[in-house]
């Protein structure tokens, strides 16, 4: 195993007027939505081996033919429109990198065709995407970053791939990912998390699931879906059975990346703020849990995919992650 090359760390301190993980999470999302540059995208549709499709959005800014290609795997209900995707697009343009956002099934604005969606452990989908990116961009080194759910799936892929991961990517990074899905799943279902984040996610997840039911009658019970009030119930009714898991507990256990971090053999970064509202600090991996090529950055502040700065600056995290990834080249 080759340890990752040294790179600037993220020593983040939040503005004094943004105390706590909730404020840092919410402000960054709002600032990114209203103030971040809106990149121009070129969309390509890839047809999958199972007769479905995924949409890949490519940033239209110029890059040299041999410049690295930065890929971003989005989080739960994310897309190329997510504030963090726009921030990474800004970073890629400033650094002269090619940049693409592959969407998980059903996340590009159009419902997918197959009786499946996506999930936190979707490493098979990650593998198919990365193989295609590598095959179609032979002159470009590939760097991949996954945000939240996308980061868990990416690191799970890297752990499963072992030595072969280096055939496709030079380095990977996971940002604010729930690497222990059980701990994060229960955390997001309690207290303020349940009232804010759970409601936000279900507001888009439930209607999408009901559209999937219209496509495939009998997939689940409509009234049971309308009664869902947290992610545990949603995953028990929809995500787990649709993707081959017995139930939510089986899904959250088997799809977690944390047990595979010791198997990673490509430079990898796991960045988690210790005040992330729904990734408990006690659940984060420690040095003894990971391979020597895995770097753990766990600043005290930052929230969930937050790390905001003044005045409406949301690039502190993408810049630090980008510097680390580029240092691996």
Topology:
Elements: H1 21-35, E1 41-47, E2 53-59, E3 69-73, H2 83-95, E4 98-102, H3 123-136, E5 142-147, H4 149-161, E6 171-175, H5 181-188, H6 191-215, H7 222-226, H8 231-242, H9 248-254, E7 268-271, E8 294-297, H10 316-327
Helix pairs in contact: 1-2, 3-4, 8-9
Briefly characterize the structure:
With 329 residues, this protein is α/β, with parallel strands linked by helices.
Under CATH, the homologous superfamily of the largest domain reads Alpha/Beta hydrolase fold, catalytic domain
**Mean pLDDT score, rounded?**
94
Q: Describe the biggest sheet?
A: 8 strands, mixed
Shape: globular
The stretches of 5 or more residues where confidence is low (pLDDT under 50) are: none
Read across the widest sheet, the strand sequence of neighbours is: 1-2-4-3-5-6-7-8
Count of discrete domains: 2
Number-wise, the strands total 8
Tell me the CATH architecture of the largest domain. 3-Layer(aba) Sandwich
CATH class of the largest domain: Alpha Beta
Task: Examine the coordinates and then state which fold CATH places here, giving the name of the CATH topology of the largest domain.
Answer: Rossmann fold
Percentage of residues in helical conformation: 25-40%
**What is the rounded Rg?**
19 Å
Order of helices and strands: HEEEHEHEHEHHHHHEEH
Strand fraction band? 5-15%
């Amino acid at each position: 195993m080759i340890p990752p090359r040294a790179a600037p760390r993220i020593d983040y301190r939040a503005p004094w007027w943004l105390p706590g993980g909730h404020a840092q999470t919410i402000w960054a999302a709002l600032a990114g939505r209203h103030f971040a540059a809106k990149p121009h995208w070129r969309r390509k549709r890839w047809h999958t081996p199972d007769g479905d499709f995924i949409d890949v959005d490519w940033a239209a800014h110029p890059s040299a033919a041999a410049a690295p290609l930065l890929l971003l795997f989005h989080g739960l209900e994310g897309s190329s429109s997510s504030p963090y995707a726009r921030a990474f697009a800004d970073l890629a343009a400033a650094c002269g990198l090619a940049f693409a956002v592959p969407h998980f099934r059903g996340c590009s604005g159009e419902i997918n065709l197959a009786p499946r969606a996506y999930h936190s452990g979707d490493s098979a989908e990650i593998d198919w995407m990365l193989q295609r990116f590598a095959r179609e961009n032979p002159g470009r080194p590939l760097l991949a970053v996954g945000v939240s759910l996308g980061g868990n799936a990416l690191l799970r892929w890297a752990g499963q791939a072992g030595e072969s991961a280096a055939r496709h990517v030079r380095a990977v990074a996971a940002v604010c990912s729930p690497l222990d899905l059980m701990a994060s799943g229960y955390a997001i279902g309690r207290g303020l998390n349940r009232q804010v984040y759970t409601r936000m996610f279900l507001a888009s997840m439930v209607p999408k699931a009901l559209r999937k039911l219209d496509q495939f009658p009998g997939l689940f019970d409509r009234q049971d879906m309308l009664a869902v009030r947290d992610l545990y119930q949603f995953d028990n009714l929809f995500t787990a059975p649709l993707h081959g898991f017995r139930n939510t507990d089986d899904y959250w256990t088997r799809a977690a990346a944390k047990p595979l971090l010791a198997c990673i053999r490509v430079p990898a970064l796991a960045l988690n703020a210790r005040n992330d509202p729904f990734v408990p600090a006690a659940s984060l991996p420690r040095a003894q849990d990971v391979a020597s090529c895995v770097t753990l950055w766990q600043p005290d502040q930052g929230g969930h995919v937050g790390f905001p700065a003044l005045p409406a600056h949301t690039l502190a995290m993408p810049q630090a992650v980008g510097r680390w990834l580029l240092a691996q080249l």
